Amino acid sequence: MAESKIQKEPSQDLTAGENRPQVLIKDLWKVFGRDPKRVLKGDLSTKSKEEIQKKTGCIVGMRNINLTIGQGQFYILMGLSGSGKSTLIRNIIRLVNPTAGTIIINGQNVTKMSGEQLLQFRRKTFGMVFQHYGLLPHLTVLDNAAYGLKVRDVPRGERYARAMRTLETVGLKGWEDYYPGSLSGGMQQRVGLARALANDPEILLMDEPFSGLDPLIRRQMQDELVELQEKLQKTIIFVTHDLHEALKLGDRIAIMRNGEVVQEGTPEEIVTHPADDYVQEFVQDASPAKVLTAGSIMEPAKVLLYAWEGPKTALTLLRANKRNAAFVLDKNHKLLGVAKAESLARLLEQEQVPERIPQSSIRVVPTVKEDTILEDMFSIISDNPYPVPVVTGDGRMAGIVTTDQIFESLSPAEGDAHV
Ligand SMILES: Nc1ncnc2c1ncn2[C@@H]1O[C@H](COP(=O)(O)OP(=O)(O)OP(=O)(O)O)[C@@H](O)[C@H]1O
Ligand SMILES: [Mg+2]
After folding, report:
1. Whether 275 and 395 share a structural domain
2. Predicted structure pTM score
């Protein structure tokens, strides 16, 4: 992928190399009220939200926000009511205009765009889904899904074809001719999602899209969104109050309080190292099993065998290290499986001892990826006598995780237990 010309914020580490920055937010402020710019001058800007409100009557919606959101990232904004999440998401598309600061999207300065430019840019780049589905009750499901395309003057045939496709994507095939009123909340929100996707936007903005739904339906919608995102790889900016939703969906999370971002990081960073008591409050119910990954707790395997080694060499190595088994790698460092000392010993009793460890003496074992969460490893460790090997996408050995390591990392460290 081409290197972006936009300079990365040094403090914001984008998780993966392929994630080029798509949304850059710099020193962004939104102050509501009369003559809001005066709040940014001098001393006043350093005062608390309450003090500013008391002195000027102005409300600080958002204060000095700096964020970098990479392409294809699922980015979560979280915080208590009134912390500025909606203000931020609305500022990104300038449904609300910032008081100060810069928003750069795909290298373009959105803060400087004129009305017409902005309109075009919004339509081309964004899809929006909000808590209240915003469906038009007198239009059918199909017309609702096609609505954004109609506004963009996409010809009728094409817009219906595209709307049909996205309705199918969100599991609503067959419902095209119904009216929103005859659909459940979950289904209505799917129409909202279909409408946002019909345009094939690069960036999806979702402000508490599932908070009006029953818990069961909500979980189902989350699962579907995860699946959809696997396919679509959109950049998604998603507001939620719900920690479990954030952990399940997010690649990164920004936690907001009083209009500020108080912590930004991966779910794992936030749960394991909350920056302050406010964040701690948020994450105290989080189960580390749902956020800690195999990659974060793995260790290098101390003894490794190589497929080209002879059984005698391998057995000597195992015995010298007091092991009764070890993982076997090929020349590309790919994991072949486990070889046990007793099967190597049996080879040595044969009349013709093979020159290399034969495939028949290597047992294939379950593996996990670096981003596998610990919860998903429970079923593996329960009936597996070996440590679990962690492998990269192309099958190379990255490390091992033992059952002890899993349980150690799940039990609270002494001193910070809050039970
Ligand atoms: N149009 C407005 N005029 C004045 N103040 C506003 C306006 N919109 C938002 N605010 C204020 O800005 C702050 C942030 O509000 P915002 O709606 O962004 O919070 P939020 O995090 O989305 O909250 P919620 O979780 O309840 O949706 C609040 O103090 C709010 O009162
Ligand atoms: Mg809100």
Report:
1. no
2. 0.77
- Round to whole Å and give the CA distance between 226 and 208: 16
Find the 142 Cα to ligand 1 centroid distance in Å. 33
Same domain, 133 and 217: yes
Q: Does the Cβ of 248 fall within 6 Å of ligand 1?
A: no
User: Does any ligand 1 atom lie closer than 6 A to the CB of residue 87?
Assistant: yes
CA–CA dist 290, 274 (Å, integer):
16
Q: Is the CB of 306 under 6 A from ligand 1?
A: no
Domain around 144: 71-98+112-287
**Residue 319 phi/psi, 5° resolution?**
-65, -40
Q: What is the pLDDT along the chain (419 residues), one digit of tens a residue?
A: 343 333 334 334 433 444 578 999 999 999 999 999 998 988 888 999 999 999 999 999 999 999 999 999 999 999 998 999 999 999 999 999 999 999 999 999 999 999 999 998 998 899 998 877 789 999 999 999 999 898 888 999 999 999 999 999 888 999 999 999 999 888 898 999 999 999 889 999 999 988 878 888 888 889 889 988 998 899 999 999 888 899 889 999 999 999 999 999 999 899 888 999 999 988 887 777 888 889 989 999 999 999 999 999 999 999 999 999 999 999 999 999 999 999 999 999 988 889 999 999 999 999 999 989 898 898 888 878 899 999 999 999 999 999 888 888 877 554 444 43
Q: Torsion angle of alpha carbons 291, 295, 296, 298, nearest 10°?
A: 130
Whether 65 is in a domain gets the answer no
What's the CATH code of the domain at 323?
3.10.580.10
Task: Using DSSP, state whether 124 is helix, strand or coil.
Answer: helix
Cα 83 to Cα 60, 103, 259, 282, 366: the distances in Å are 10, 20, 5, 13, 44
What is the number of other CB atoms lying within 10 angstroms of the CB of residue 136?
A: 13
Single out the residue in 287, 313, 335 at which a domain terminates.
Answer: 287
**Position in ligand 1 atom list of the atom nearest CA 88:** 18
Residue 84 Cα: closest atom of ligand 1: 18
Give the total number of structural domains in the chain.
Answer: 2
Q: What is the CATH number of the domain that holds 75?
A: 3.40.50.300
Cα(85) to centroid(ligand 2), Å: 6
In a domain, 144, yes or no: yes
Q: Nearest residue CA, atom 31 of ligand 1?
A: 82
The answer to whether residues 276 and 157 belong to one domain is: yes
Atom of ligand 1 nearest to the CA of 79: 21
> How far is the C-alpha of 377 from the C-alpha of 380, rounded, in Å?
5
Residue 106 domain flag: no
